[in-house]
């Protein structure tokens, strides 16, 4: 049985090996942005989830590494194309690909990463390879659906809590769930267990994304790593804003809409004022309740999984870390 | 045994069925551009090649249809993203996706098509499904490499004939070859035959792309369907320009570079003058020789294929049509 840290080490070693190979491939201008993106780092959560899940049923985790890598390459592809669509200039303290190279370069190298993800994924030798590839394709399409919903919400003020949860399920949760199920399928786990791990991932993913929303507004800038209040400044339809609009009395609602519609403002002031309204309404308590509920449900599902309890510990400890953001 | 027309009919029926399904999928803004792209029409060459190749070995072509469709969806994905990169406003007499919808919409719906292509491809039930998916991923990555080389050539005047042929091999020929090999693999044909069909496709694809270059300059506007001289106006490094630069005497070279470097010109005059230089040098004969050589080589490969001669006729007749552009 491997710890989270040991599996992360395996993933990082493999990524290093692959990026070295990519640096030798032609045309250079296609593969340089791919290499740049993969070398940027990141938490490598998804590939580690593949291996942790695989490791519940089988010790030989090396067999699952190409699939884990494929999912990580796919995740990085989505970040690359999302950054073009969001016109984001910086990711992980470095210029985004379309800023550093060119927009055309970012589109095409992103496309190449999508196919590279499949190339890695399909390296695996497994009786369940078709199931894995089908699950991956379905998931990839769902992630696109989630990104589209997120863009659709930009121009709407009437997004419901239910619609929001469906958006983050597609945009964030299904890929975590897919990672976990992929590990189980590759280890040839029974269908029922693979499904449970998928559901565990959905609940964990929803809690994880909601916490990201919470920290964007109520977090500590240093441990969060991004500037606080970005969502408020962009009028992003997060759980907090949706809940605030839903729960506000008429005076709070008026103030909230004043700040949403104001085009000329001092950023710090808008963030401060909107947080004050959020605090009056008590949306932080609401989001905390929601996060806890999804997180507890994910643990219940894990409890039902019929493998020995000590095997589940690395997965539990990673979930715990994810929700406390200590790494 | 099916004729080209019968197989085309099957493909078109299937595309109609699938686009009807796509129109019901949410979010609408993600799937509308996909539907729009697939409904634009086109020659459906690649899916028909899958079925023609399959039909050399097996009668039950319906089994290969999802894979044929996947390849067609992938081909349309490349057109969609290429149009963004080329800033093209019109395709098949209709506004391109990024013009009709938005650039972000075109990026994301294109991405969705890439995954939809796999979803269709992976519907097939076949012992060779992994081989097919691996070939497809390798090919998709090569097509990205070809597109990158094509973009790299824009800023170069020293592109060699060999580099050019490698670029069109990647950008155009490998997908035709992949279509043919996919049909063979799905019909469980021997590896050697699948390989021959692949090589047949490479040679056919090279001839096809060279002819496209030739017609862009020397074609008849009505039968070609695009405005004549577009490549000349864009200083595109086609076989014609590369060969002209290579073969020009010093006076011809000077006139050619004059027109390449001139920033202010009357389009019709530039086209007329460059064609006059091409005619003096005799590049049309050069490209015709090259087309014939690839085409004849493709037929030689087909001759070597050990299936009965009459089975090869639909494939031969399609190649013939492709090279004469009568449809």
Automatic annotation (TrEMBL), chains A, B:
Q: Which GO terms describe its biological process?
A: isoprenoid biosynthetic process
Keyword Magnesium found: yes
Q: Which domain of life is it from?
A: Bacteria
An example of a GO molecular function for this protein is: metal ion binding
Keywords from the UniProt entry: Magnesium, Metal-binding, Transferase
Gene3D superfamilies assigned:
Farnesyl Diphosphate Synthase
The record's annotation in InterPro entries points to: Isoprenoid_synthase_dom_sf (IPR008949), Polyprenyl_synt (IPR000092), Polyprenyl_synt_CS (IPR033749)
Does the record carry Cell wall biogenesis/degradation as a key word?
no
- Similarity remark: Belongs to the FPP/GGPP synthase family.
Q: Please state what the protein is called.
A: Polyprenyl synthetase family protein
């Amino acid at each position: 049985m491997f710890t989270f840290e040991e599996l992360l080490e395996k993933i990082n070693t493999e990524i290093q090996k692959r990026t070295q190979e990519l640096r030798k491939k032609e045309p250079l201008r296609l593969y340089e942005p791919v290499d740049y993106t993969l070398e940027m780092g990141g938490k490598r959560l998804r590939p580690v989830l593949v291996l942790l899940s695989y490791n519940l049923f089988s010790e030989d985790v090396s067999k699952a590494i190409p699939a884990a890598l494929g999912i990580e390459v796919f995740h990085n592809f989505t970040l690359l194309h999302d950054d073009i669509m969001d016109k984001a200039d910086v990711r992980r303290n470095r210029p985004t690909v379309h800023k550093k190279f060119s927009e055309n370069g970012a589109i095409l190298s992103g496309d190449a990463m999508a196919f590279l993800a499949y190339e890695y994924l399909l390296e695996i030798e497994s009786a369940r390879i078709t199931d894995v590839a089908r699950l991956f394709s379905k998931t990839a399409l769902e992630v696109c659906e989630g990104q589209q919903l997120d863009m659709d919400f930009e121009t709407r003020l009437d997004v419901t809590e239910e619609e929001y949860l469906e958006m983050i399920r597609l945009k964030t949760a299904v890929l975590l769930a897919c990672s976990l199920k992929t590990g189980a399928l590759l280890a040839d786990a029974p269908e029922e267990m693979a499904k449970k791990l998928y559901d565990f991932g959905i609940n964990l993913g929803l809690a994880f994304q909601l916490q990201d929303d919470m920290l964007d507004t109520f977090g500590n800038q240093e441990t969060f790593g991004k500037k606080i209040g970005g969502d408020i400044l962009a009028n992003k339809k997060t759980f907090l804003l949706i809940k605030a609009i839903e729960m506000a009395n008429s005076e709070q609602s008026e103030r909230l809409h004043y700040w949403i519609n104001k085009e000329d403002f001092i950023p710090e002031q808008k963030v401060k004022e909107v947080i004050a309204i959020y605090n009056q309404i008590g949306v932080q308590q609401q989001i905390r309740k929601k996060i806890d509920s999804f997180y507890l449900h994910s643990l219940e599902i894990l409890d039902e999984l019929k493998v020995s309890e000590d095997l589940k510990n690395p997965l539990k400890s990673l979930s715990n870390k994810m929700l406390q953001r200590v790494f």
